[in-house]
Every structure is written in C-alpha cells, then in structure tokens.
Design goal:
Beta-Lactamase; single chain; 10 helices; alpha+beta
Amino acid sequence: MTLRWKIALSLAAVGVVMTALVGVFTYRSASGRLIDEIDRSIDQAGQVLAVSNERLPQRREVFDVYSFRRVNLRGEVAMTTFDDGVPVDDAVIASVAGQFGLVSKDTVVADDGERYRLHTTGLSIGVIQVGRSLEEVDAVLADLRRRTLLLSAVAAAISALAGWLIASRMAAPLRRLASSADQVRTSGRLDVVLPEAEGSSNDEVGQLSRAFASMLGALASSKADQERLVQDAGHELRTPLTSLRTNLAVMRRHQQMPDEMRTEILDDLDGEVSELTDLVNELVTVASGDLVTQPAERLDLAALVSSVGERVGRRRQRQVVVTGASGSFVSIPRAGLDRAVSNLIENACKFDTSGGPIEVDVSVAGDTAAVRVSDRGPGVPSDEFDKIFDRFHRTDATRSMPGSGLGLSIVRDVVTAHGGSVAATNRPGGGAIIGFDLPLVD
C-alpha cells in the first residue's frame, strides 16, 4: 500500500471516528433532553389528574396526547384509557400505592412495539398512571441517527480526499527522491541533482533529501579517493616492477656474469621486493580503513608513545628518546594511534642518517595534546609542509629513497578522523619536526 493510500485511509478513519463520537454525544444529549421534556409534560398532566378524581373522563379532551390509568389499593384497574397492549407492572404499582405524591418514572414497551413514557403517582386510594407515547421522540432520534450516518460518510469522503491531496503533495518529493535513487542504481552516477536538497525546507522530507545528497557526496568522494588511490598505486608500482623486470632480463641475457655483478643485481631484486612488500601492505591498510573505523579507546598518549618508541628503536637499532607530559589521555583506536606514532618514528629513522637519537616530545597545551618527532635529515621545503601528508608525495631530496609514500598519509587519516590535525616544520640546525595534535579527554 502506498503512502498516499495510508494517509488517505488514516484521515478517513479519523473523520469517521470523530464524527461518530460527536454523533453519539449529540444523540445521547438530544435523547435525554427530549425525555426530560416528556417527563415535565407528564408531571403537569399528572398533577391535574391527581386531584380530578371522578372527572377523569370529562377532562380527557384536554389531555388527548396522554393515556391514563387509575388502580385502587387492591391492584384493580378502576379506569384506563391505555391500549390493551400497554403492560401493568404490579411491582411498580405496589411500590407507590397509598403513598401520596410518590412518583415512579419508567419507559415501557407495548405489545405492538411502541414505547411509552409512564409515570406512576401514589394516591391515598391507590395510584394513577399517566403515559405518553414516545413515537415522536423515536422518530426524531431515528432521523438524527440517519443524519449522523450520512454526516460520517461525507466526513470520511472529505477526509479521504483531503488525505489523498495532502499525501500526494507530501509524496511528490519522496517520489522524486526515489527516482533519483533508482537513477543512481541503474546508471552508477553519483552526481544526481536533488532539488529538494538545495531548497530551504526544514521539514522531514527536506532533511531526508539533504541527508541523501550528503550520502551521495560522501560516496562520490570515496569513489574518487578509490580511483585516485588505484591510479597512484599503479604509478608507484611501475617503478619497482620495471626495475625487477630489467634486472631479471639482465640476468637472463648474461647468465655467465661475474659473481660480483650477480650479487649486486640480487641485492637490487631483494630491495625491490622489500619495497613492493611494504607498498602492498600500506595499500591494504589505506584501502581497508581499519585503522580509522575501529572503536575509539581512552588511551594514555605518553605511555603509548614510549612503548612504540622502544619497539621501533629495537627494530631499527636506533635510540629513541621520548620526553614530555604523562597522563595525557586521548580518545582514538589503539591500533590507529600505534600505527601513526610508529610511522612518524620510522619516517624519522629513514631520513636521519646521522645515527643520532630520534627525539619524540609529548606536550599538553590547553585541551590539546601534541606529539612531535624530530630528526636530523634533509628537512622539508617550506612550500611542501602540507603536501608531505598526501599519498605518494615525495620531496625532490627523497625521491631516490625507499618507501611507500603512504606512511604520513596514514598518520593524517588516523588523526583527522578523530578530531586532530597534523603539523610539519623544519628543525633549527637541520632536519624536520613532524607530528600531530589530538583533543584531550577526561
């Protein structure tokens, strides 16, 4: 069932229920007021007849809409103008007989189905019953019922029509949104224009359209990143693959080459394979996004940096000196932070050929924690401070050095995904200082 039908039927149901409730209230109110009017008229007639005694027949023409019945203390009908079908309730008569002025008011049904309103008034010599047919009241109430049913039907039709029109107006942007989604599915294009997303409407449809447009934008950006990653990876893979192919071709052509030359080529092959392995591993890390999407943890930044520094120092056989504030807590995935710090220290070890210690400083300023890794390498040109965090970017001074070109881009992705930022500058006296900032948590 479509949204239009659901809204139309819902409004129709609401219209029927509301009309029915009003009708029931009106019917009960009208019925009560009509019965009250009948009771008042019967009371007036009864007061006159109660003192009429033997003159009841002579005064009947004055009360031609009423019927009368006098019953003595023995329960015998002394006089009546009721039709034979109107019942005599002995229990009611017994309850008021002989008690002057006591009145019992009841509604009875004659044998022919006609309803009567009957007042039984106690007299010292018995009771007198005054009744009046409710035929006119029943006719009025029946007409009221018919009108209520007709009004309910009209209200349901009007509500359904209004619901259909309102739902059609509401569903129009949803249909356009569905059409756009189907267009994305069939064509694969993510640049579909959504007019509702460009409007100023703040209703749910406008919010949904803007959310859908934002999702398409994120998908388009992700697709562009994937395409750029594939293109960049293909470009970066060509160099080591070409070198491998060249070295293998040389070995095939010169199978009797000197041992010194063979050893040199094998060392080159080993280096190219190692570089390819590092590049593939980094590509898998970037493509999977696991370091960014894992659940964040509350981590002691200084403690983790010290642990990573010791590990990298042992592997690289370099001294890594970590200084700074302890007890600085940040919220970030452990694996992501570990990899970011490791990449920074590995990067410093690679470019710092002095053999001296790698300095890592952890500091706190306000509500921000900072990590800075200093080396004594070639440094970074001032116009490339931001570019070094791009994928596969290399400065002129480092193009011939091994590496995947993805290490610092992974640092940027991990840190910026959790509210941080990256920074790079040159070290006084030579070298670079590269690091990141992260917001502190309690």
